[in-house]
Amino acid sequence: MSESILSFKLTLYLACVVSELSIYCACGHIICEQTASIQEHFYSVDWTDCTKRFRRNLLVAITRSKKPVTITAGKFYPVDLIMFTSIMKASYSCFTMLHGFVSRRN
After folding, report:
1. How many domains does the chain have?
2. Same domain for 19 and 67?
3. Does residue 16 sit in helix, strand or coil?
4. What is the dihedral of CA 89, 95, 96, 97, to 10 degrees?
5. Three-class SS state of 39
6. What confidence tens digit (pLDDT) does each residue in 84-96 have?
7. DSSP code at position 78
8. Containing domain of residue 35, as a range?
9. Residue 80 burial class via C-beta count within 10 angstroms: exposed 0-12, middle 13-18, buried 19 and up
10. Which of 14, 25, 77, 99 is the Cys-Cys partner for 84 at CB 3.0 to 4.6 Å?
11. pLDDT tens-digit series, residues 5-33
């Protein structure tokens, strides 16, 4: 009985960790996509009839929007769906390796 309860607790913990990681990665991906489309919106502005100050500010905004905003983990890894896929692949590889070691012992 205690082994099944422990198994259930570990499964529930794993599901919570994976869902939390997927939420962060999905939000990071959405933010990156949205900020990448800002530059297109700046280019579509009818700037010919605007003041010189507005045109200069628009040029600065276009220049700054060339680099999309990304959420990073510790300033090392971008938090997006690609990183989520990489983490899940690495986790599964480690799991299968450890499972193979344990099954050989028994």
Report:
1. 2
2. yes
3. helix
4. 110
5. helix
6. 999 999 999 998 9
7. E
8. 1-71
9. buried
10. 25
11. 888 998 899 999 999 999 999 999 999 88
The length of the chain in residues reads: 106
- pTM for the model stands at 0.73
Q: What percent of the chain has pLDDT over 70?
A: 98
Q: Based on the fold, state whether residues 14 and 34 are members of the same structural domain.
A: yes
CA distance 106 to 59: 67
76 and 61 together in one domain: no
Q: Nearest CA to 38 among 11, 15, 82, 69?
A: 69
- C-alpha 28/C-alpha 33 separation (Å) is 9
